[in-house]
Amino acid sequence: MAKTKKPQRRSAQWFGREDIYGFIYRSWVKNRGVPQDQFDGRPVIGICNTWSELTPCNTHFRVIAEHVKAGVLEAGGFPLEFPVMSLGETLLRPTAMLYRNLASMDVEESIRGNPLDGVVLLMGCDKTTPSLLMGAASVDLPAIGVSGGPMLSGKYRGTDIGSGTNVWSMSEDLRAGKITLEEFHEAESCMHRSHGHCMTMGTASTMASMVEALGVGMPGNAAIPAVDARRNVLARMAGRRIVELVKENVPISRILTRAAFENAIRVNAAIGGSTNAVIHLIALARRIGVDLKLEDWDRLGRGVHTLVNLMPSGKYLMEDLYYAGGLPAVIRELGENGLLDKDALTVNGGTIWDNNKDAPCWNRDVVFPFKKPFKKDTGIAVLRGNLCPDGAIVKPSAATPALMKHRGRAVVFENIEDLHKRIDDPKLDIDERCVMVLKNCGPKGYPGMAEVGNMPLPPKLLKKGITDMVRISDARMSGTAYGTVVLHVAPEAAAGGPLALVENGDMIELDVAQRRLELMVPEKELARRRAKWKAPEPALKRGYWKLYIDHVLQASDGADLDFLVGKSGPMVPRDNH
Ligand code: FES
């Protein structure tokens, strides 16, 4: 790896001083038994930990941190672990996404304000990954992401069940009367039986794959199960490697280049990854100065096939992907078919191609060859039209092919409460040809853009055996969910987007092949409705909620806060020490 100009070690501004401040900086750290020789100018490595019992997916991170520390010490560095806000997807209300940007600020300021030369970022549950990467990108020190790894496969009555994906199907089965409450409870205990994050190709596994594909994680980062000893080995190797990265002065901006993002977008298509990655990668790219656009997803995803047969698009789980060869087997397929920028640099010092060109595949039912893919042409489709002037997305690999071109009558839910109130009503005027429309669930409207875009189907249609319908909203969808679900409509309804103007009975036309989403209502009528429209009142008008609602960007721009876009680097402003 080519070296850039050798800087003075950043931590020396604290620990290298021989004055009153140097005394203060060193003396307090020594209170837990740190010897003097740790302040001799060796790289000081922060271990940014999202451990929390409120984030069940990250509860093994104290152990992982110890392995990172061991690696840092072995390589001659000085590790200092610190906590940051942890975002647990299952418990945190109204949605963990509301706090992604807040957590990223915590990460950014914790790194910038402290005597660190490099950081290892411990992340697992969905939003912990983008929040740590975004915060670290804005400081731009050397950094390595270490994911906590997926849980072991869920096992229920002789079959594999996947987190999220089977929650959706089982709750629909319960509502349709196909399973009992006892069976439902039994499945709860069988689904999540080890440490780790969701083991479907949901958002957490997708983002762990993005970490590897971007080159900001070590090879193998995506799929090693959380409880496999090799996950700890990876953490330890990351600890050793970050010390070298600091010595080589390779900041994260050398890794997170446009080439890295383009590789990651293609990998996302190949794994049938979560739609949430669209928002997170755009936000991350713009922190580091790469102008990634929604259209890049469509352009780069075209011609990429889904190779990975994992839930929610397929049948296997992350444990199976690991045993089949993991993400390296997927990246190799892309590289051999001209869909990889092979020169993109990664944190281990090699290029992405160096790391993956010889990757084996042990199970072709889990990782399909590119020439005989699992599903064809399945990159994220970006839609435009008068219903979504700033874009909307759909994930073809999770959709029903017959519904990709569809015209139907709108059945409108004004907000999530309205949906919950009416969806089970047998008198709801809806049939399977209708288009379900949900408003006011975007970044400002919810707020935080909840994962409710995959609206539950009405029980009366479920009982008829209907399993999918076209659904449109400004919300997000869990990476573990599926269906013909149009998401991230921008501008959102609460910002006055055309979605706000849809009324019951309007005709809507979706044509994924043509990338179109149209509200078949004359402009004159829309203008009449627009004149009457009033923005919904925010649910809370103080504190972080107010800051967020006032400053959040639309999904098409990554839903970051407008004043967080870009980076300010590792300098501490107004530092009079
Ligand atoms: Fe944490 Fe799914 S709930 S990754």
Question: Can you characterise this structure?
Answer:
This protein is α/β, with parallel strands linked by helices. The chain has four domains: 9-41, no CATH class; 42-152 and 194-356, Response regulator (Rossmann fold, 3-Layer(aba) Sandwich), CATH 3.40.50; 160-193, no CATH class; 382-540, Glucose Oxidase, domain 1, CATH 3.50.30.80. It is 34% helix and 11% strand. It contains 19 helices and 14 strands. The strands form four sheets. The protein has a six-stranded mixed β-sheet with strand order 12-11-10-9-13-14. Strand 5 and strand 6 form a beta hairpin. The protein is globular, with a radius of gyration of 24 Å. The model has no long low-confidence stretch (mean pLDDT 95). The structure holds FE2/S2 (inorganic) cluster. FE2/S2 (inorganic) cluster binds at residues 57, 89-90, 125-126, 163, 197-198, 202, 204.
Q: Residue-averaged pLDDT, rounded?
A: 95
CATH architecture of the largest domain: 3-Layer(aba) Sandwich
Q: Any idea what the CATH superfamily of the largest domain is called?
A: Response regulator
Strand order of the largest sheet: 12-11-10-9-13-14
- What is the overall number of helices? 19
CATH T-level fold name of the largest domain: Rossmann fold
**Low-confidence runs:** none
Number of strands: 14
How many domains would you count in the coordinates?
4
* Helix amount: 25-40%
Please state the overall shape, judged from the principal axes of the Cα atoms: globular
Bound molecules: FE2/S2 (inorganic) cluster
CATH first level of the largest domain: which class? Answer: Alpha Beta
How large is the radius of gyration? 24 Å
For the largest beta-sheet, the strand count, sense and barrel status come to: 6 strands, mixed
Our estimate of the beta-strand percent is 5-15%
Termini gap: 35 Å
